[in-house]
């Protein structure tokens, strides 16, 4: 957006802004929705939460879900969407002339159950207590024929405005701030000198909470017959203890509702249900009766899980024995219902053609299904990513032509994993670390480079501490130290 365009938008003398007049004439497009959500993006953009990794991750995941919700509303012939629960950390800001002064943040949770783009935008702004003056006068975003709008601009988290926009408004440019942060990024030794004492104190004070967490987890796994208890996000130890205590209270108040949990893996996350891997998900924002209702539905979920496994076997038989897998990624977990729907749709497309592949020609390879892609691609880790709505008659040729390269990448990845594990072990032992791990966004090559650098420099301040390799410097609430993988010596 140029300065001239921005001035026209903001200084028009008519009773309503040009943007509002334009939007009233037709349905809201993707680009216009982004413009209308501008105050919201400035309040929750993950780049402003660099020193708060947990809040940054929550906002990033919620933005992906919100953008996906908006994209689905714009698809031709879309059906009613499932209610989507979102949580954001909203920056508290105070306007003074042309600047915005940061003064902390607050947590906001709400559920989207809207039918069009405009009402979704209004709901988001209203839920976050943000200004809606620029939305006044807008009517339903349905078109003249009553149908939802056609797909507009794509929703993508990084909103890159023209540099003149920031120069004119006085708003901070996230990209420029990140570049400045990198230029003045401290060396590891300097940062440790300033933060090692704080981390050590926090780690020491968290020991009782860690022991309590371990006790609660062991007790509940034994009592409920759970295989494991996991957390999708990096909540603090105190937060995790509260979640387990809440489950323990439910087991005492309503013990009959929990017998269906036996043999399952339990995952605390943002929504309740069962994920594509067959793990029971407990939404941390849900109350006890919602958890109890989920436990009562687990037999039905297990039946659906069996149907899902059957579909995987049928697809594998039709495609030369290739294994159909699901890989959990960062962000919202894929629900079992969504996974079954994708498998079923793909199987129906595949079945009439019955590809001519040798039954065991691809049995040592793997594939995942993914909606929203236009073509089959080979992932760097060696598995194929196949679009649910791909051209099935071309699929056998694609798989066979890249099978050799896929096997090479699988072996390369296995080798890298072994090297990474050995480097992590050496680092932990030789630097006397209490713990060494990495964030999911850090790749194996990045982790290996970081470990080699640590072994070369051997910073003594790390002895006895818990270290997490990330992309930012930070001290977690329980004393874990986060350092960027490409730290400077």
Automatic annotation (TrEMBL):
Q: Where is the DUF4461 domain?
A: 186-488
**InterPro entries to which the protein is assigned, alphabetical:** DUF4460, DUF4461, TCAIM
Instruction: Return the protein name.
Output: T cell activation inhibitor, mitochondrial
One Pfam family this chain carries? DUF4461
Listed PANTHER family: T-CELL ACTIVATION INHIBITOR, MITOCHONDRIAL
Q: Report one GO cellular component.
A: mitochondrion
Taxonomy, top ranks, is: Eukaryota, Metazoa, Chordata, Craniata, Vertebrata
Q: Where is the signal peptide?
A: none
Q: Which residues form the DUF4460 domain?
A: 24-130
């Amino acid at each position: 957006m140029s300065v001239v365009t921005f001035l026209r938008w903001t200084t028009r003398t008519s009773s309503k802004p040009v943007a509002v007049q334009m939007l009233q004439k037709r349905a809201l497009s993707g680009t216009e929705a982004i413009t209308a959500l501008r105050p919201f993006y400035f309040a929750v953009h993950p780049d402003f939460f660099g020193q708060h990794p947990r809040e940054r991750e929550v906002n990033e995941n919620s933005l992906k879900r919100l953008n996906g919700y908006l994209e689905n509303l714009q698809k031709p012939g879309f059906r009613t969407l499932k209610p989507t629960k979102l949580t954001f950390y909203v920056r508290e800001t105070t306007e003074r002339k042309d600047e915005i002064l940061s003064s902390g943040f607050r947590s906001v949770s709400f559920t989207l159950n809207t039918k069009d783009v405009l009402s979704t935008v209004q709901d988001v702004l209203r839920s976050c207590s943000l200004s809606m003056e620029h939305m006044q006068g807008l009517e339903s975003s349905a078109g003249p024929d009553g149908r939802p709008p056609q797909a507009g601009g794509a929703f993508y988290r990084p909103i890159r405005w023209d540099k003149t926009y920031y120069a004119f408004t006085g708003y901070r440019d996230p990209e420029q701030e990140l570049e400045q942060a990198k230029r003045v990024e401290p060396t590891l030794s300097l940062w440790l000198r300033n933060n090692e004492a704080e981390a050590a104190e926090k780690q020491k004070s968290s020991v009782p909470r860690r022991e309590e967490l371990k006790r609660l987890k062991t007790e509940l796994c034994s009592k409920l017959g759970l295989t494991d208890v996991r957390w999708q996000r990096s909540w603090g130890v105190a937060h995790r203890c509260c979640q387990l205590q809440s489950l323990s209270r439910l087991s005492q108040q309503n013990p009959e509702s929990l017998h269906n949990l036996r043999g399952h893996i339990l995952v605390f996350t943002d929504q309740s249900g069962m994920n594509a891997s067959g793990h029971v998900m407990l939404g941390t924002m849900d109350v006890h009766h919602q958890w109890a209702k989920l436990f009562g539905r687990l037999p039905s979920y297990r039946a659906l899980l069996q149907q899902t496994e059957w579909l995987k076997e049928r697809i594998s038989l039709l495609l030369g024995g290739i294994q159909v897998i699901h890989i959990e990624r960062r962000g919202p977990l894929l629900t079992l219902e969504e996974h079954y729907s994708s498998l079923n749709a793909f199987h129906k497309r595949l079945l009439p053609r019955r590809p001519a592949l040798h039954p065991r020609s691809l049995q040592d390879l793997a594939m995942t299904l993914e909606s929203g892609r236009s073509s089959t691609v080979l992932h760097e880790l060696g598995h194929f990513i196949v679009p649910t709505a791909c051209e099935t008659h071309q699929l056998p040729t694609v798989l066979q032509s890249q099978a050799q390269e896929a096997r090479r990448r699988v072996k390369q990845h296995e080798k890298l994993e072994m090297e990474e594990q050995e480097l992590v072990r050496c680092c932990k032992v030789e630097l006397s670390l209490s713990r060494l791990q990495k964030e999911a966004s850090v790749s194996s090559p990045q982790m290996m480079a970081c470990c080699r650098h640590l072994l070369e420099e051997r910073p003594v301040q790390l002895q006895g501490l818990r270290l997490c390799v990330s992309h930012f410097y930070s001290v977690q609430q329980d004393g874990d130290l986060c350092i960027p993988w490409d730290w400077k010596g």
